[in-house]
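Two folds, back to back.
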Amino acid sequence: MQISGIIQQFPKEIKGLILAFICTLSIGFYSGISFVRSTTDANPNGIEQRYLGNENDENATKMMFKKSEGEIMTTVHSHILSLSVIFFLVALILSTTNINQKLKMFLMIEPFFSLVFTFGGIYFLWKDIFWMKYVIMFSGFLMTVTYTASIFIILKEVISRKKSKTYLV
């Protein structure tokens, strides 16, 4: 079955649904990114302090304590479950777009790797493997970039008026 490019042939109702879903999803996704930025200062030391605390820093302006095992497990569990569903749905929609096949596969699969590295990294950072803060930062950045690229491609194709020559077989 060939589905590449079929998004442009969807009825207006389905395109509207996709548009509403992607826009609403993106509000939630980017508000989460904004929360991460505000709680970690978007740097490796901020990431470390967020999960391991800063009780030993006498110059700290805001006291932070090491997260409990329950807090870490809840964060890892809930984010991996919810974001994997989000990335799966975005990948399904992206699969119907008419872009380069290798780029499409990368954008569809990569967020799942970044998800495991980001939240697995948070767990291992909490277990005092300190260099994981760099893995968390890089994989989180890559996850955000691939999500952003995917939604821009989807939005471009949903809004586009041209008809694709690709048909469902």
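---
second:
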Amino acid sequence: MKKYILLVVVSIVMTSITNAQSKKYKVSKTNSEWKKLLTPLQYSILREAGTERPFTSPLNKNYAKGVYVCAACKTPLYKSEHKFDSGTGWPSFDRAIKGNVEMDVDYKIGYARTELKCNTCGGHLGHAFNDGPKETTGMRHCINGAALAFIPKK
């Protein structure tokens, strides 16, 4: 039975890796090109699925009106009116701009989580959880602030 469960888990992980590697994004660069374009923290998060320390992003407490875009390719990802203070230490939103954020599954910490990626460049943004505001979508998109840039409304 243990061998069967291990075989199923390995199959799921390999399928996820194969699917993630086969997707072609509109914006595609080599690792060297991304490293020139991004800060070391942005590269770690967006290209290597890293995580910034909680409460370190200035965007966590930013409540100005505007749009949050991908720090790598500038695709609009989140509107300021969908941002809320989750208390987690990362910028949180109850929804993304339709079609601009891809949901994937990652098993990096041993169990399935919903990973959020930029649908234009494939950059890792954060994860989705179902503990967001009940009066709206009930979702919490927990996003690394370094994966975002903010464009204020004029």
